[in-house]
Design brief:
- This protein has a domain of 95 residues.
- It is 89% helix and 2% strand.
- It has two helices and two strands.
- It is rod-shaped, with a radius of gyration of 65 Å.
- The model has no long low-confidence stretch (mean pLDDT 85).
């Protein structure tokens, strides 16, 4: 019986050893699964964080690009308005200059016409005076013209 008792104890010990080994293996498997799950969770969090950072960078890039586009459009619009304003100012100055030039030309024309009129009148008067003097000298003057002409010089009672 001793050998049966030893065999039984050996079988019981073997059974307990196998059970403990199975428990340890289950515990190690559970720990391995927990480690695997934790690694997967960490990897998923890193993936989400990377995707979030990439999306934020994409949005910042898009916002920066849009801001640059808006600024370029604003600058172009300001340049367009400035050019339009400068063109309008130049047009107004040219119009004012043309109007002043026209006025000055008209004034010059009027002045020249006045000078020519005065010159013509003077020439006419000079010609008339010359004609009257010649008529008077030749004795062809009319009576009313003689009255208008100056009296001859008198020196010591003589007419010259």
């Amino acid at each position: 019986m001793a050998s049966q008792d030893q065999a039984r104890r050996a079988a019981e010990t073997k059974g307990r050893t196998e059970e403990k080994a199975n428990q340890m293996m289950g515990s190690v498997g559970d720990k391995a699964q927990a480690g695997k799950d934790k690694t997967a969770d960490t990897a998923q969090a890193a993936k989400e964080k990377t995707a979030s950072a990439a999306q934020a960078a994409k949005e910042r890039t898009a916002n920066t690009a849009q801001a640059a586009k808006d600024k370029t459009a604003d600058t172009a619009q300001a340049a367009k308005e400035k050019t339009k304003s400068a063109a309008q100012t130049t047009k107004e100055k040219a119009s004012d200059t043309a109007a002043r030039t026209g006025e000055m030309a008209h004034e010059g024309k009027d002045k020249a016409a006045g000078i020519l009129q005065d010159t013509g009148e003077k020439m006419k008067q000079m010609a008339q005076s010359t004609a009257d003097a010649v008529k008077s000298t030749l004795g062809m003057a009319k009576n009313d013209e003689e009255e208008d002409s100056p009296a001859p010089f008198k020196t010591r009672g003589r007419d010259y």
